[in-house]
Amino acid sequence: MTVRLRRAVPDDAPKLEALHARSWRASYAPYVPADALGAPLDSNMRARWSSWPADRLILLAEDSDSVLGFAAVVRADVPLLDNLHVDPDARSNGIGARLLKMVASCLAEEGASTLRLVVIADNARARRFYVRMGGQEGTAHDEALLGETVRMVPFDWSGDAFDALVADFDRQSRKDA
Question: Which CATH number belongs to the domain containing residue 43 in this structure?
Fold first, then answer.
């Protein structure tokens, strides 16, 4: 599978909305009630993607046929990786790692040197991934997710950990060129 990474554009919104909902249903089913992943999720996704979030850095991974994953970052003093989703059928192919590294590289170009995200505390697979990618786990706290209270864990990249993501992306980009 040949995967291409690029910045998303407003015309990508319908595909991102569909992938976002599909990924949430596959990823969050063990953590939130099933009814929250029906109409409430559809409404949430329509609202999120009905207008292009110009204040965010949005990257996507695609092959010749479809969007395979995306990352969305809220720009702030400490940028927040609000979403990192890979199509359930395309997972374990390095797409999430490539997107995370590209996020760090793009943020570094904008002058950032840190990155934060939060993940569901019980999502052991995601937590292992972020640890493997050099993230430093913080203290768990409660947040609302689709109207449900869920335990979340923050991850931070700064200093050498952030720089390693950037360097890995740059190294991979040179290899792919």
Answer: 3.40.630.30
**pLDDT tens by residue, 76-133:** 999 999 989 898 887 788 899 999 999 999 999 999 999 999 999 999 989 999 999 9
Count Cα atoms within 13 angstroms, Cβ side, for 4.
9
Its domain, for residue 39, covers: 4-176
pLDDT digits (tens, 9 = 90+) for 44-72: 788 888 888 888 999 999 988 888 999 99
How many separate domains does the chain show?
A: 1
Cα separation, 138 vs 69, in Å, equals: 25
In this prediction the pTM is 0.89
Phi/psi-derived region of residue 5, left when phi > 0, alpha when psi is between -120 and 50, beta in every other case:
beta
Cβ pair 104, 157 in contact under 8 A: yes
In whole angstroms, what is the distance from residue 112 CA to residue 157 CA? 11
DSSP letters, 141-173, are: EEEEETTEEEEEEEEEEEHHHHHHHHHHHHHHH
CA distance 160 to 109: 16
Query: Which residue do the tokens 């970052």 mark?
Result: 73
The long-range contacts involving 74-77, CB below 8 angstroms and separated by at least 24 positions, are: 75/110
Residue type, 82: D
Distance between CA atoms of residues 157 and 131, nearest Å = 10
Q: Three-class SS of residue 2?
A: coil
